[in-house]
Amino acid sequence: MSDGDHAADPATETFVAHRNLLFTVAYEMLGSAADAEDVLQETWLRWVQVDLAQVRDRRAYLVRITTRQSLNRLRTVKRRKEAYVGPWLPEPLLTAPDVAEDVELAESVSMALLLVLETLSPTERAVFVLREVFDVGYDEIAAAVDKSPAAVRQIAHRARRHVDARRPRRMVSPSETRAALESFRRALESGDLQGLLDVLAPEVVLLSDGGGIKQAAVRPVNGADKVARFMLGGLGRNRLPITVGPTVVNGGPALVVHLDGGLDGVLAVRVEDARITGVYYVRNPEKLSRAEAETPLTLR
Fold it and tell me: How far, in Å, CA of 256 to CA of 84, rounded?
C-alpha cells in the first residue's frame, strides 16, 4: 500500500489540526472534559457533511460548529449542576508546561476563572471565551451565537466587566503559586495547623467537590481557621498515610493528594499577595481520570 493510501482526507486533516483549539473552546464553555469530548464528536459528525469547497475559513467554521454544540449542551449541563450534591467544580485537566507559558490561556482555564464564567449566561460565556481568550472577530462570533455584531460587542463588554470585577487584581506568576502551594503542602502533610494559617488569607474560601460519591463540605467553607481545620480534620480522620505532590492542572501549579497510595483528589488554589484566597478540592472520582493522564494536554 502506498503512502498516499494512508493520507488523511482534507476534512480529517483540518479537524485534527484544530482539535486542541476546539476542545479548549468547549471545555471553557462547559467546565467538563467529558462533555467537551462529546461536543467534539458532535462537531465532527457535522463537519464531515460540509462541502469544504464552500468554506472560506475552515478554522472559523469549526469554531462556529463547536460553539453552537456547546451552547446546546449547556442546557443539559445546567440541569445536571442544579441536581448536583454540594459545590460543583470544573473537571481538573493535567496540562502541558507550554500552557502555563501562555499567561492568558492559563488563566482562562484556571479553576478560579472557570468558576467566574459559571456566573455568566451561556451566550455571555461563549462570547467572552471566543473574544477574550481566542481573539475571534465580532463578525465570526455573531455567526456562532446567532446575534448581530453590534449585539455581540455589547455582550462582550458586559461579560468582560462582570469577569473583571471578580478576577484577581493582578496576574500571579506560577512561581508565586508554587511557593504558596509548597507551604500549604508541608503544613498539610505534617498536620501543622499554624503552618496552614500562615499561608491562608483571612478571607479564604474552600470549595470541595465530592459529587455525592466522596465526603465533602456541602457548602463553601469560609475563613482561614475553618478551612485549615477542615483540611486537617478531613484527611486526619482517615488515619491513612497521606502524600501530597506537585502537579500542573488547568494551566497552573496544583497538588495531587494520595491516601494510602490511592488518588484522593486534586487541589488547586487562587493566590493573591502571596497568600491563598481560594482552595478548590476535587474529590469526585468521576472527575479525576484526566488529572493523572499519561499525556498532559496542550490546549491550542
Answer: 23
SS3 of residue 257 by DSSP: strand
- pLDDT value at 29 more than 90: yes
Supply 264's cell numbers: 484522593
Residue 45's pLDDT is what? 97
Contact 251, 100 (CB under 8 A): yes
| Cα 19 to Cα 214: distance, rounded to the nearest angstrom | 33
Q: Are 167 and 116 in contact (CB under 8 A)?
A: yes
CA distance 26 to 71: 9
Least confident interval from 79-88, 95-104, 108-117? 95-104
pLDDT in tens, 30-48: 999 999 999 999 999 999 9
Q: pLDDT: is 8 or 207 the higher one?
A: 207
Helix (H) or strand (E) holding 159: helix 149-164
C-alpha span between 53 and 204 (Å, rounded): 54
- E strands along the chain, which residues? 200-209, 221-222, 242-249, 252-259, 262-272, 275-282
pLDDT of residue 7: 54
Identify whether the C-beta of residue 63 lies closer than 8 Å to the C-beta of residue 164: no
Instruction: Give pLDDT tens digits for 41-71.
Output: 999 999 999 999 999 999 999 999 999 999 9
In contact, 268 and 249? CB cutoff 8 Å: yes
Calpha distance 8→166 (Å, rounded): 45
Contact 263, 191 (CB under 8 A): no
User: Can you give the pTM of this predicted structure?
Assistant: 0.91
Max Cα distance, the chain (Å): 68
